[in-house]
Amino acid sequence: MAWLYLAAAAAFEVAFALGMKYSQGFTKLTPSILTAIAIVGGLGFLSLALRDLPVSVAYPIWTAVGTLGTVLFGFALLGEALTAAKLVSAAAIVGGVAGLKIAAS
User: What parts of the sequence cross the membrane (predicted)?
Assistant: First the structure.
């Protein structure tokens, strides 16, 4: 169940990051409210996941999935460039988190 909580937390993390963009500095009411909900949801589910998962694994996974999701949705929804440098950097993030998970086992 902890991994499902972590997946939900990561989804809320992506929603939080995108919501900040759409809220335009918290000047748009609906996106600002949705962003606040996403913040609470992300932290809430992360805290549930941390009951059973080590913080040294769960937190990096949460931030990595949030980062990767934000990069992909930034490309898909916002028309941001998906350059070779971004792809290599994303692969480095995945490799680093995988290393932390392996080291914790």
Answer: 33-50, 57-78, 84-104
